[in-house]
Amino acid sequence: MTESTISIPANCFNPKGYVKSHPASGLLSTRHGDRLIAIPEVLLRSIPKILRVEAGEASYLALYTFGDNWGKTFGDRMVQDMVKYYRQPILSTIASEFFVNVQSVWAVHGLGKPSVDFSLAERGLVVVTIANSGINSGTTVEPNPTYRSFSLEAGFLAGWFSNLTGKPLRACASNWSEAGASLQFLIGSIPQIESIERSHLQTGMLTPDMLQSL
């Protein structure tokens, strides 16, 4: 193979190649023709408030379930796009390259900038921090927020990781009182996260020291 025949593809989710606009119709789509929509920030803020009024405590479960399904669909589409673009199974993708694509797909869809911390992996937990969250728009939706106030994004992350790993997972916010610049989430097995929610998050957020002692 000569130097002239070597072709290194650009990032799969570079917006210049990934997003296609159709001026005549005013529509956006991916390179594969999948429709893209823009959701106004005011709508994302309004849905939790309306659900809270209509469904009370059940609104958190509704948002989490919606986010879980959304995350699974989003993750499945991301994997399919990468497989088509790089022409190789997703398991053949180098980890560093995979997470560069993850940050790019989050950015191009306006979801923020994710970073994944595997330092608690031996305890069955992954810590994900989302900077400039597009789902929560950097603001809380409750006057006195708890980890449940971020059920939509927690569900989204649980669904995304569940789709990626093929295992049922759960997620929860762990630093909601510091929400603004970034949000931190714990992801793990359903029993483990539910135990953390009962033992720690009902009475307050998890501090960095508490995280290390889980």
Keywords:
single chain, 214 residues, 4-stranded antiparallel beta sheet, 7 strands, 44% helix
What does this structure look like?
It is a single chain. The chain has 214 residues and is α+β, with helices and mostly antiparallel strands. It has seven helices and seven strands; from the N terminus they run H-E-E-E-H-H-H-E-E-H-E-E-H-H. The chain has helices at 15-18, 41-55, 58-86, 95-108, 151-165, 190-201, 208-212, and strands at residues 19-22, 27-30, 35-36, 113-117, 126-131, 169-173, 182-189. It has a four-stranded antiparallel sheet. Strands 1-2-3 form a three-stranded antiparallel sheet. A hairpin with an 8-residue loop joins strand 6 (169-173) and strand 7. The protein is globular and about 50 Å long.
Give a short overview.
The protein is of the alpha+beta class. Helix content is 44%, strand content 16%. Strand 4 (113-117) and strand 5 form a beta hairpin.
Q: Classify the helix fraction into a percent range.
A: 40-55%
Number of strands: 7
Largest sheet: 4 strands, antiparallel
> How much is the radius of gyration in Å?
19 Å
Uncertain segments are 1-7
Structural class by helix and strand composition = alpha+beta
Give, in order, the helices and strands. HEEEHHHEEHEEHH
Helical stretch tally: 7
What gross morphology would you assign?
globular
The largest beta-sheet arranges its strands as 4-5-7-6
Distance between the termini: 52 Å
Strand content: 15-25%
Overall mean pLDDT = 85
